[in-house]
């Protein structure tokens, strides 16, 4: 009986690992229109509870499951950008964000 329970336990672990998605690395750099790095950009990956931010040189790094992913880059003062990627290996995703122009009109 113990042997059968051990074999069943092993098989459940084996089957579970077959269906688990491999975690891959997503990294990149966020820049502005002048190729200057932008820090503190929030990066959200659909279905992943945590968000990450770019560091002082505009770089970021995280792990994501393989397959189709929706990645959103946003920060105050910049137009948000959403990118859909197919992740099959460790991926480099560099993004350029456009600064939002103020629409204040001046009075003469």
Put the structure in a nutshell:
Pfam families: CarboxypepD_reg (PF13620). This protein has 108 residues and is an alpha/beta fold. The protein contains 1 helix and 8 strands, in the order αββββββββ.
Report on the structure:
This protein has one helix at residues 2-19; strands spanning 23-31, 42-45, 51-53, 59-65, 67-75, 78-87, 91-92, 95-96. The model is unreliable at 14-19 (pLDDT under 50). 17% of the residues lie in helices and 43% in strands. It is built from one helix and eight strands. The chain has a single domain (21-96), classed as Immunoglobulin-like (Sandwich). The strands form two sheets. Strands 1, 4, 7 and 8 form a four-stranded mixed sheet that branches. The chain is of the alpha/beta class. The radius of gyration is 21 Å and the shape is elongated.
| Average predicted confidence as pLDDT | 85
Indicate the CATH topology: Immunoglobulin-like
What is the tally of beta strands? 8
The Rg value, from CA coordinates, equals 21 Å
Overall outline = elongated
The top-level CATH class is Mainly Beta
Number of DSSP helical runs: 1
Question: Which key terms come to mind for this protein?
Answer:
108 residues; alpha/beta; Immunoglobulin-like; 4-stranded mixed sheet; 4-stranded antiparallel sheet; 43% strand; TonB-dependent receptor plug domain-containing protein; CarboxyPept-like_regulatory; signal
Topology:
Blueprint: H1 2-19, E1 23-31, E2 42-45, E3 51-53, E4 59-65, E5 67-75, E6 78-87, E7 91-92, E8 95-96
């Amino acid at each position: 009986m113990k042997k059968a329970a051990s074999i069943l336990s092993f098989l459940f672990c084996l089957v579970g690992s077959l269906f688990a998605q491999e975690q891959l690395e997503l990294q990149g750099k966020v820049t502005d229109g002048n190729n200057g790095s932008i820090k503190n950009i929030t990066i959200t990956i659909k279905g992943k509870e945590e968000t990450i931010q770019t560091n002082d040189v505009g770089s970021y790094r995280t792990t994501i499951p393989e397959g189709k992913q929706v990645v959103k880059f946003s920060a105050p003062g910049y137009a948000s950008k959403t990118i859909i990627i197919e992740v099959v290996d460790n991926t480099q995703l560099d993004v350029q964000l456009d600064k939002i122009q103020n629409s204040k009109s001046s009075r003469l």
